[in-house]
Amino acid sequence: MSATTSENPDLFTSVYKHFRRLSDTECYTEAYSIVNHPTVFQQCPITISIDLDPSLGLQPISNWSLYSCKFCDGLYFLSNPFTSTGQRQWIDRCINIYARQTKTSVGDNSNNENLSRIRWATLGYHYDWTNKIYKQDDHTKMPDELAQLCKIIMQVISSSTGCSMMNAEAAIVNYYHMNSTLCAHTDHSEYDALTKPLISLSFGNAAVFLIGGQTKTECKPSPILLRSGDIILMTGSSRLCFHAVPRILSDPLLNDILYKNIDDNDEVCWSYIHDKRINVNVRQVYS
Ligand code: OGA
Ligand code: MN
């Protein structure tokens, strides 16, 4: 691990600060998207076909678009594979089921009375933030539909790219307000399973996701624009790369995707998500 020195500057933090200072419009222009920066992505053909359970809220796999990221080895971007209704269902689960846990940033939130303040909830093997470990005996069942979703995603990506499969054993659900950030870090507590991919689902407002190298000094991080429904897969060497979220961006498209044809239940979700972003970060913990 190389220390940060004047000859070896922290390239990650300078890019992080750069995005902190930009306007939303500048972030939308600079952060990589398929439309604005097609040359940094390489499309991966998908040939597998799988029958999908409608409860997963997915479009037929023949409509999915998967890309490898030329700027980061092993990193894949799956452009929103959900239907609009599917996105609303996942947001509803994040708000009304996954936030109602005993292990959250606001303590026991079983009755959801602290939803407006919640920052994270853990599912499956619960992450111990203080000691940075998972414990075999601190476990609740992974929600079936989330495990199912991850299995389908892994089958598709693995058949298309040859990456290894991942059992969804633990998830961190991050709830971001418009001014929330996530500082540069690596996820390395899954020590039995660091060769297994990590799946990251985005819902709600957009974000700038920075991904760099395995140290903060070896390269400048690249910015990716993540919009509602988009999925990031960290496989191979990218699994251990530094990453961060310097910005949440108000997304004008969210209204169209999520607010059209809503029913009463969706109205409650909308009142939460219209100024939030939710990230579901799923990992395998044990080999
Ligand atoms: C994490 C993480 C990224 C995101 O939870 O470890 O890196 O997109 N989340 O919110
Ligand atoms: Mn992370």
Extract low-pLDDT stretches: none
Order of helices and strands: HHEEEHEEHEEEEEEEHHE
Largest sheet: 9 strands, antiparallel
Question: How would you describe the shape?
Answer: globular
Strand line-up in the sheet with most strands: 1-2-3-11-8-13-6-4-5
- For the record, give the distance between the C-alpha atoms at the N and C termini, rounded to a whole number: 25 Å
Number of strands: 13
Rg, Cα atoms, Å: 18 Å
**The first-level CATH class name:** Mainly Beta
Total individual domains: 1
Look up the CATH topology.
Jelly Rolls
Relevant CATH superfamily: Alpha-ketoglutarate-dependent dioxygenase AlkB-like
Mean pLDDT over the residues: 94
Helix content: 10-25%
Class from secondary-structure proportions: alpha+beta
Domain Fe2OG dioxygenase: 167-286
Binding site for Fe cation: 185, 187, 243
Organism: Adineta steineri
InterPro entries: Alkb (IPR004574), AlkB-like (IPR027450), AlkB-like_sf (IPR037151), Oxoglu/Fe-dep_dioxygenase_dom (IPR005123)
Structural notes for this entry:
The chain has 287 residues and is of the alpha+beta class. The protein has a single domain (11-283), classed as Jelly Rolls (Sandwich). The chain has helices spanning 11-21, 24-30, 84-98, 144-161, 254-259, 264-273, and strands at residues 41-44, 65-69, 75-79, 120-128, 133-139, 170-177, 182-185, 198-204, 206-211, 222-226, 231-234, 243-249, 276-283. The strands form 2 sheets. The chain has a 9-stranded antiparallel beta sheet with strand order 1-2-3-11-8-13-6-4-5, covered by helices on one side. The protein has a 4-stranded antiparallel beta sheet with strand order 7-12-9-10, with helices on one face. Strand 4 (120-128) and strand 5 (133-139) form a beta hairpin. Helix 3 crosses helix 6 (264-273). It is globular, with a radius of gyration of 18 Å. The two termini are 25 Å apart. The mean pLDDT is 94. The structure holds N-oxalylglycine and manganese (II) ion. N-oxalylglycine (OGA) binds next to strand 6, strand 9, strand 12 and strand 13.
